[in-house]
Every structure is written in C-alpha cells, then in structure tokens.
Amino acid sequence: MRNLKQIVISIFDILRGSTIILFCYYFGKLLSNYTHGLLSGSVIGMIILFTALTLGLIKKEHVKTVAQFLINNLIVFFVPALVGATLINFTDISSSILDIAIIAIFSTIMVMTSTGLFVQWREKKEAKKNE
Prior knowledge:
Number of helices: 6
Low-confidence stretches: none
C-alpha cells in the first residue's frame, strides 16, 4: 500500500510540475503574439517561470522533478535542430559563410560574457545575503 501511495504522489508531482512549466510556456507564447515576436514565446515563458520562482509564487519543489528530467534529457531537444542543419544546402550559403562565422563568434562571446557577469552578480548577492 505504501508503494501505491508513493506512486500516486510521484504522478501528482509530475503532473503539477508539467502543468506549471507548460502554463508558463503557453502564456509566454501568448505574450509573444502581442509583442509581435519581439521575443520568442519560449524565452518569455522562461522569464515568467524564473520570475515566479524568484518571487516565491512557485515553489522550487513543485517543478524540480520535471525540470530535472528535462535537463537530464536535454540532448533530445537538439535533435530537430541537428536534422535541420544537415538538410541545409551549403552551396546556397557559401557566399555568406564569413558573415555567419562572425555572427556565431560574436554571439558566443556575448553569451559567455553575459553568463559570467550574471553568475558573478548572483554570487556577490548570495555572499551578502549569507553575511
């Protein structure tokens, strides 16, 4: 009987976490339509989820199980992009290869820099909080 109770609780946790994450995603898509695609719906959804977690509107434990599953299986979400990349006719983009390389390098540097600065800011904030 104890196992059945644990299974029901696990299923409930998965459903609750999935519902919260999907709600944030679809709400982000809805907002993206109103901003005429300024940001993608998935990015807006992640911002909503992050804000709700930061403000304590959503408890971390409510989405932890589903989020951990998604993170552990993240490679599956890159398969469509990889398949799409293999279908590109490289003769069509050969004239733009320098532009593409510059954009890829610049965007990589920007992401690395902004991530590093954000992590440093968060660590300083946590250090002040723990003092």
